[in-house]
Predict the 3D structure of the following.
Amino acid sequence: MGIWLRRRRAVLLAGIALATCGFAGSSSQGPHPVTLDVLSPLAASDRLVERLLSPVTQLRIDRYVDRAKTGLATQSIRVGEETFDLFVPATPGPSGYGVMVYIWPGDEMSMPFSWRRLFEARHLIFIAARRSGNGQNVLERRLPLALHGLEYARHHYRIDSERVYLGGFSGGSRVAQKLALGYPDVFRSLMLAGGSDPIGTAGFVPPSRELMRLFQRHTRIVFATGTQDLPNRTKDARTHASFADFCVRGVRDISPSRTGHWVPEDRVMARVLDALEEPVKDDDAAFSGCDRALEIRVRAGLDEVQRLSAAGREDDARDKLAALDELYGGLAAPDSLRLAEALYPVLRSGAAAEVLPPNGALD
């Protein structure tokens, strides 16, 4: 080999070595599969029922369990049988890693390549369950898997509890929305891309008053549906209006232009992540006025059920109560539960009645 070629090779190898040294210790491993090795107590069946189902539905399940002399399965997911896609930045932030639990509409979707640099710079872990697509059961798989994903991150890494976020795309976005409403004390922010539902529809039910207050006043919600995804933009508009009716304060819209039914690319995603990390700027006076108006609507609905029942129109009263329970959930309890026991004797504590299927008809 001539002197010129040897020198050129030496320079090339030296450049490669310098480049390698420059990135050593600062680059993260790309998204890779991990096996679930720990379960979240937040995903226990009784916790899911308590936080995600309406009060009257919870009462039906309680009575069924009591009379059947059985119990709900503690967990629907088993350790060692589920896989997650995990991306971990090379270094944590000053208070530990942030984490985004993401829910996809498909079973084998993975983190977009353009997001890696953003998550790396923000010391933000990305974790998403496989076999959690739209074809999977929501209550038995999709919701608990997301909670188990968070538990996996907490078990293996130091996590900043103030930077725990939830996101989803399309059908996964709707599941993420349901989970964020039920667990606002866990997830600080929510990213919705390509899918959302108004409160009171699709099983999207307000939790207890205490949890609902957290969602209303402290949860940051960022809509990121592409401007050309017209069907879901229309649905997002209805969800926006619903959030306003329910006094949800931390709502922002960062819609990627010239984008159809897909997630934001890096530049828009950077703005989304910035918004997810901002605290909600609350206005006590504005919230109080909205909250009073909401309480008046709930009270009027409960009074209407009572009036119909007193007039002997029990079928109408039951229909009204069912709609009220679905729309206002925990905001109508415990009065909604007292009305349910009055309208459905089978739900009364200690009633001598046939075993009631948890999803069966009450009439």
